[in-house]
Amino acid sequence: MLGMILVADFVRDVSVGALNKLKSLGIEQILMLTGDNEGTARKVASETGVDRYFAELLPADKANMIRELQMQGKVIAMVGDGINDAPALATANIGIAMGGAGTDTAMETADIVLMANILEKLPHAIKLSRQTLKIIKQNIWFSLLVKLTALVLIFPGWLTLWVAVLSDTGAAIIVILNSMRLMRLRA
After folding, report:
1. What is the DSSP letter of 180?
2. Torsion 42-48-53-57 (CA) sign
3. Are the C-beta atoms of residues 45 and 51 closer than 8 Å to each other?
4. 58 and 73 in contact (C-beta within 8 Å)?
5. What is each CA distance from 23 to 42, 104, 133, 137, 170, in whole angstroms?
6. What single DSSP character describes residue 56?
């Protein structure tokens, strides 16, 4: 033999770290659905630490696999970047496309597009969305409490026009300031 050419994709260490962060956020199971052959899929799965993998899947097979998991009561977030991932992205509860190197079809089909092709942004996006939902609920409950208090103060005649205006404006300012706490959350 005079020479050999080997072509392979290598798993980036930061990708393994991102998957570990996802698990630390409470993601129950990480699966890999791939069209690659069994040997490649097994190697990548062992290097990344995914819980299960399914190889040699066609686009329809990926979508069917997601439907099966959903029928078991699982909530599925699918991350993909290619045209072969589009049916699975559409089928999943949440489709997440990698925008940097992703196809237009995948980005159009997905619910969320990570603008850079950096998997490490995904754990931050999940933390940010969870914190956003928490703050939205806080703001709604606070606003309802202020409105209910104002309503109760009407009957004894303690709620004047100015007190109502100040309480409403004050509540709006507090809700805005509470929401601005999201700006402190960094990747």
Report:
1. G
2. negative
3. no
4. no
5. 20, 29, 20, 25, 40
6. S
DSSP code for 103: -
Task: State the pLDDT at residue 187.
Answer: 66
Nearest to 51 by CA among 74, 67, 81: 74
Tens digit of each residue's pLDDT (9 = 90 or more) over 153-183? 998 988 988 888 999 999 999 999 999 999 9
123: how many CB neighbours lie within 10 A of its CB? Answer: 20
Q: Where are the beta strands (DSSP E) in the chain?
A: 31-33, 52-54, 77-80, 94-98, 112-114
Q: Hey, what are 24's tokens?
A: 């630390």
Largest Cα separation within the chain, whole Å, is: 97
Task: Annotate 108-142 with DSSP letters as a single string.
Answer: HH-SEEESSS-TTHHHHHHHHHHHHHHHHHHHHHH
Of the candidates 51, 59, 18, the one whose C-alpha atom is nearest the C-alpha of residue 35 is: 59
Query: CB under 8 Å to 150, separation ≥6 — which residues?
Result: 159, 164, 167, 168
